[in-house]
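Researcher: Structure prediction, please.
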Amino acid sequence: MRFIEAGDVRLALYEEGDPAKPTMLLVHGYPDTHRVWDEVAGLLAADFHIVRYDVRGAGRSSAPRDTRGYTLDRLVDDLAGVLDAIGKDTVHLAGHDWGSIQGWEAARRFPRRFASFTSLGGPGLHQWADFMRNAGRREVAGQALRSWYMAAFQAPGVPELAWRTVMPRALARVMRLSEGIAPRDGHPADTLVRDGTNGVNLYRANMFTARDVVPEPYVEVPLQLIEAEKDVFVSARLLASLHRWVPRMWHRTIPAGHWAQRGSPGTVARMIGEFARHIEYGTEPSRELRRARVAGVRGPYDDRLVVVTGAGSGIGRATARAFAAHGAEVVCADLDLDAARRTAAEIERLYRTAHAHQVDVSRAEDMERFAQAVRDGHGVPDIVVNNAGIAVTGPFLDHELGDWERTIGVNLWGVVHGCRLFGRQMVERGEGGHIVNVASLAAFMPSRLLPAYSTSKAAVKMLSDCLRAELAGKGVGVSVICPGFVSTAIASNATYRGGDRSLSESALQRRAYPPERVAAHILRAVHRDTAVVPVNAEGKIGYALSRLSPGLMRGLARIAASDIGRLAGKD
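Model: Predicted structure follows.
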């Protein structure tokens, strides 16, 4: 650590890593110090020369004499002074909160001094003012509610009193309860009361005061915007409005709160480092970075990687095609490799890249190899559709033990393996994702003809509900799809322990509900993050009755096979 002179203050400057490597400047916000970046700095130090400093009035830096010393111009001059002190003409910049606000202005004023800029948790001050002047009333009101503290900080003496009494404990409680961040050495800093008290002047000097209007506050520096989806201080609408000010912009999201660099340091460090290396060396961008590029009109599934099991036929094949038609790259998995290859070849002929893999979803070792192959060869999937399934029909007492083992193995264990392996990949990546589990009307409609099948599908639905609750905080959605009768080959491929095979097959064909319509429901469920999706008339009616009258559903379970077949064949 060393001190540098910056006009009316002295700044504490910290450096680590090899100065011969590209320099990464990390700027903290309010009421933090440079220590808020500790975890991220440690992860980036192997590839970058890391530079941090305590902004004026924070940490070990000195404070200006009055409020006028906290204007944005002074803060940006400090940042330029740090660059001069370390002897670097060009650096990569990452800023959080007020550090991001400074970064926007510095990048506007000195674009040639920054190779790239990553903004986390804060727009530019001019861009914020434009949004508050010109956005719709609802959007402005929403952001104003999030920014209530800005007005509160204008009251003379009140914020200072709060920082000397209740604010330190309140801040620690908020970080722990809302973001799961425990205090650690250096954050919050032991200078927190002083930092919070001094930093109030950031708002008094810059917010709600007359400022020179910047006609075109554009930023020419390549800019990566990291949107923390749980940030209670900045609205998604405000961040979306920033696109118009940056010709070269990448917009990424992270399922984290305001202090994302503390709550998800690995993900934040990976995003910052990946972006800087791409700009510095021209390295091939990852799928996630390609998808983040803001350029033209993009669909919700452009550049997404989608894995579909049971993709060789029926609902799986239709789903793989539907995602590909909407811009996704699809991994088509099936026990029948030739069928998977046909689906992949069809997608490549009509749409875009697809890949075929053979996998037995019921076997843990097969699924582990498959999941690793997907990650190594294509990347972490954004969407996984656990669709593979089989059926055994007939009375319970006619089912053989092997029937139960195969049904549970494919229909339930296949889903468990897919959720466990790919869900872990999504969580470790830290950029969200979605898991779709295909169940059935049988998940909530008992039947004397499908005891093993119905049991497995009911378990899939419950698994999906449990997993949705667990992964919600990680930004990973979970949907369960429950179709009624669909015209697929499941009846012709089923094992029959009694009952009329031809009746079941003809009933599904007469129902004439194509798998493509189920695929449309799956895409809509992912887009809307819907928990449970009953599909077609019997699926929706059955789901409603299961909730309203379970006794009636148990009575319907007694209907004979011939009656079920006739019902399925009706429109």
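Model: Residues 560-571 have pLDDT under 50 and may be disordered.
Researcher: Thanks, that helps.
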